[in-house]
């Protein structure tokens, strides 16, 4: 009797597993767009996100921006699953810390980190990087400023500089920025400023 119950349990689990897999087709994150398939899994099939993981530091005198990025697998966003880069950051301006969200990195926030995204592109038509090369992969991320509840753009290009792994970056709180104060008189400026062009992060 015990063996029969065990066999039935195994069969139910196996059928449930394959039924779940059948309802969760795997697609490449390259195919993400406006019309995504509900319950699909948009996976980093070629591990293109891996090269962006790590701790990265930009410095300019006593001003610095540190970002820490991690790859998360199969995050559900309410419609479909996706592999994501998530992260947090610390910004110091003229020796004064303006914002530091690094403590949130170890929290299980899903996609609700202050840096998140998985937009991969290899076309330089709309790139603001001064040495962009058509065909190279770049990563587009959203960067949240929780102090004013706004979202900026952060675009990263892989580089090797003086033998060190690096990221060439472009940060912009521009036309695409979303803020709850938008349109209100006296809306606050973003903590990091409105734009940083062609800055270089060195891997730590």
What descriptive keywords fit this protein?
204 residues; mainly beta; eight-stranded antiparallel barrel; globular
Account of the 3D structure:
There is one protein chain. The protein has one helix and twelve strands, in the order αββββββββββββ. 10% of the residues lie in helices and 45% in strands. With 204 residues, the protein is mainly beta.
Give the averaged pLDDT, no decimals: 86
Proportion of residues in extended strands: over 45%
> Distance between the terminal alpha carbons, to the nearest Å?
59 Å
Secondary-structure-based class equals mainly beta
Global outline: globular
> How many strands appear in the DSSP assignment?
12
**Count of individual helical segments:** 1
Helix share bin:
10-25%
Question: What would a concise description of this structure say?
Answer:
The chain is mostly beta strands and 204 residues long.
Topology:
Blueprint: H1 2-22, E1 26-28, E2 41-43, E3 54-60, E4 63-76, E5 81-93, E6 96-100, E7 115-121, E8 138-145, E9 150-161, E10 164-172, E11 178-179, E12 195-203
Parallel strand pairs: 1-2, 2-5
Antiparallel strand pairs: 3-4, 3-12, 4-5, 5-6, 5-7, 7-8, 8-9, 9-10, 9-11, 10-12
């Amino acid at each position: 009797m015990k063996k029969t119950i065990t066999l039935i349990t195994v069969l139910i689990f196996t059928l449930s597993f394959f039924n779940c897999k059948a309802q969760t087709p795997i697609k490449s994150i390259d195919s993400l767009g406006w019309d995504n398939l509900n319950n699909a899994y948009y996976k980093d099939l070629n591990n293109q996100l891996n090269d962006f993981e790590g701790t990265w530091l930009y410095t300019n005198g006593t001003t610095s921006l540190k970002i820490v990025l991690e790859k998360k697998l199969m995050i559900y966003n309410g419609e479909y699953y996706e592999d994501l880069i998530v992260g947090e950051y610390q910004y110091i301006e003229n020796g004064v810390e303006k914002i530091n969200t690094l403590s949130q990195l170890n929290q299980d926030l899903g996609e609700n980190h202050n840096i998140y995204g998985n937009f991969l592109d290899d076309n330089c038509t709309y790139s603001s990087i001064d040495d962009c090369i058509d065909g190279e992969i770049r990563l587009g991320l959203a960067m949240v400023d929780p102090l004013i509840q706004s979202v900026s753009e952060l675009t990263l290009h892989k580089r090797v500089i003086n033998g060190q792994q690096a990221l060439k970056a472009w940060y912009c709180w521009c036309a695409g920025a979303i803020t709850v104060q938008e349109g209100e008189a006296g809306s606050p400026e973003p903590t990091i400023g409105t734009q940083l062009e062609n800055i270089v992060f060195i891997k730590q």
